[in-house]
Each structure stands twice: as structure tokens, then as C-alpha cells.
Amino acid sequence: MEPCITAGTGIEETGFGYTMSLVSGKYKMIILYWLAEYSVLRYNELKRRLGTISHKTLSLSLKELEAAGLVQREEYPQIPPKVEYSLSERGRSLIPILDAMCIWGEENRPGGKGA
Predict the structure, then answer these.
(1) Which of 27, 68, 85, 115 is 20 to 30 Å from 44 by CA-CA measure?
(2) Are 65 and 71 in contact, with CB atoms under 8 Å apart?
(3) Structural domains counted in the chain
(4) Residue 13 scores a pLDDT above 90
(5) Is the full-model pTM beyond 0.85?
């Protein structure tokens, strides 16, 4: 396998850097994980699952994930407004990577399976 990052190459010029630019941030990968787990979540359901996230941070993270083509936002014209979020096909393609991170973490964390 050819290395993704090579000496003299700026990280932003690599596939790794591009991927990280889309999912970096405290909550983005967790948002993707919850959407993968539940398929469709409304804003308040997602906020409850994330716990301590502020309205501003969740709103900005969702907008950035949507702009990156990873999350789809479906707005229903009703009173009160109903908005649902789900993974796009592009977002679903990241799930095997998140799953691999979960497996690695379980195998390597202190007290985990591999410790």
C-alpha cells in the first residue's frame, strides 16, 4: 500500500487531509455514527444523543456535514417545522472507516480486549 502522506507534501494536499477536513471537529464523527445507527434523526433527537453539545455547535456541524455532501437534510412544510437528518450515500461510505476505528479502539484501549 502506498503511503497517503509523504515527506514534503502538505497534509492538506493528501487524501487523508481532505478526509480530516470533512470530519474533524469534536462532534462530526459522532453525528455520523448516530445517523448510521438510527438512519434518520430529528434535530432534537440528535441533540439529546450528543448530550452536552450546544445548539450553535450542532447547527454548524450539521450545516458543514451537509455542505460536504455527507448528510442530507429533509424539511417538511408543517407547523411546527419538522426537519430530519440522514446520511447521504457519500456519508454512508465513511461508516466502514468509523467501524474500523471502533474496533481498533476496543482492541487497544486500556482494559479493552487487546490490553
Answers:
(1) 68
(2) yes
(3) 1
(4) no
(5) no
